[in-house]
Each structure stands twice: as structure tokens, then as C-alpha cells.
Amino acid sequence: MESVKEVHLYIEGGGDQGHIYNIFKHRHPEFLWRSNLKVHIHGVEKWPEEPFVYAAVELMADYGIKLTDTNHLTEIDFIDDKRIYLVMIK
């Protein structure tokens, strides 16, 4: 996962630093020690049926990031009783 430069966390109902820590601790502990990793939290009030489409549209509109077949990894999971969607930009 060293190729990941930026992480966007879409968290149902919003989140904080504690959520980031729990997500990384359980899913990607290697991220906890990366000082150069950019992490963005996106609170999602109404969870979308297609989280990938939701994230792709928001990333393009807000950050100018276009998701392609080779520039990202995604995961969906539950943590702290909230749905989460991770978009990891390489």
C-alpha cells in the first residue's frame, strides 16, 4: 500500500479522527505510520445506492480527481456501526 498517496473516507453520518484511527487500525494499520499520507473525511448523510459513483462524482467536482482503472483502490465496510467507503488514490 505504499503506492497510496491520498485516502478519502466516506463515512455514513460523518466522522472524526477517532473514526480514522479505528478504520486504519482494523483495515490498514500500515497507514497509521505514514506521515505523508493525505486523509480526507467526507460525511455522507444519506448513504448512496452506488457509493463508487457518488465518490467519483464528488472527487472530480471537489478535487479534480478522475478515477481510472489504474489510479485507485476502493473498499466498503462497516466500522463503529457506520458504513464506510474508502477511496485510496495512488
Helix content range: 25-40%
Instruction: Name the shape in a single word.
Output: globular
Sheet with the most strands, sense and barrel status: 4 strands, mixed
Q: C-alpha Rg, in Å?
A: 12 Å
Distance between the termini: 9 Å
Q: Looking across the biggest beta sheet, what order are the strands in?
A: 2-1-4-3
Q: How many runs of DSSP E, i.e. beta strands?
A: 4
- Average pLDDT, rounded to a whole number, is 92
Number of helical segments? Answer: 2
Q: Helices and strands, in N-to-C order?
A: EHEHEE
Unreliable stretches (pLDDT < 50, length at least 5) are: none
Structural description of this entry:
The chain has 90 residues and is α+β, with helices and mostly antiparallel strands. Helices cover 27% and strands 33% of the residues. It has 2 helices and 4 strands. It has helices at 17-27, 51-63, and strands at residues 6-12, 38-44, 72-79, 82-89. A 4-stranded mixed beta sheet has the order 2-1-4-3, with helices on both faces. Helix 1 (17-27) links the parallel strand 1 and strand 2. It starts with 5 loop residues before the first strand and ends with a strand. The mean pLDDT is 92.
Keywords:
90 residues; alpha+beta; four-stranded mixed β-sheet
Summarize the structure.
The protein is built from two helices and four strands; from the N terminus they run βαβαββ. With 90 residues, the protein is of the alpha+beta class.
